[in-house]
Design a protein that fits this description.
Marvel, structural constituent of myelin sheath, mainly alpha, 153 residues, elongated, transmembrane helix
Length: 153
C-alpha cells in the first residue's frame, strides 16, 4: 500500500508539475483560503487588537511563505530531496498549528461579536472563520501527505 502512495505522490516536483502532484496541488487552495482570511479580517474592525492581530499575522505570514515555498518548488530550487521533503513537512506542520490557533481565536472573537450592533463585521468574521478552518484543514492534510512523502525517501 505504501508503494501505491509513493507512486502517486512521486518525487519532489518542479515546474508546472507542482500543480498536478499530491500534496503540492494543495498550494493553490491554501493561498486562496489564506488570502480570503487575510482580506476578510482586514475588512473588519480589528477589535480586539489581540487576538485579531495574531490572526492577521498568521494569514499574512502563511500566505507569503506558502507563495515563496511554491516558487522554490516551481523554479526547481530544491536539489536535496530528502532535506526539502523534511522541510516541506516541517513548514506545513507549523502552518497548520498556527492556523488552528488563529482559527480558534477568530471564532472566539466572532462569538463575542454575536450580540453586537455591527452585523456587517459579524458576517465578515463568520466568513473569515469558515475560510480559516478550511485553510487549517488544507495545511493539516498537506502536512500528513508531506510526512508520507518524506518517509518514502
Amino acid at each position: 500500500h505504501s508503494t501505491n502512495v509513493t507512486a502517486v505522490m512521486g518525487n519532489l516536483p518542479s515546474g508546472a508539475a507542482i500543480c498536478t502532484t499530491i500534496p503540492d496541488i494543495l498550494y493553490l487552495p491554501e493561498l486562496v483560503f489564506g488570502g480570503l482570511v487575510w482580506i476578510l479580517v482586514a475588512c473588519t474592525l480589528v477589535v480586539p487588537a489581540n487576538p485579531q492581530g495574531w490572526v492577521m499575522f498568521v494569514s499574512v505570514f502563511c500566505f507569503v511563505m506558502t507563495f515563496i515555498w511554491m516558487l522554490v518548488f516551481a523554479c526547481g530550487g530544491h536539489r536535496n530531496r530528502s532535506g526539502w521533503a523534511a522541510a516541506d513537512f516541517l513548514y506545513h506542520g507549523i502552518a497548520a498549528f498556527f492556523y488552528l490557533s488563529a482559527s480558534v481565536a477568530l471564532a472566539k472573537v466572532t462569538l463575542d461579536m454575536k450580540d453586537g450592533s455591527d452585523f456587517q463585521n459579524y458576517q465578515l468574521d463568520i466568513s473569515a472563520v469558515v475560510f480559516s478552518y478550511a485553510a487549517t484543514l488544507l495545511y493539516f492534510i498537506h502536512t500528513i501527505l508531506s510526512a508520507i512523502r518524506w518517509k518514502s525517501f
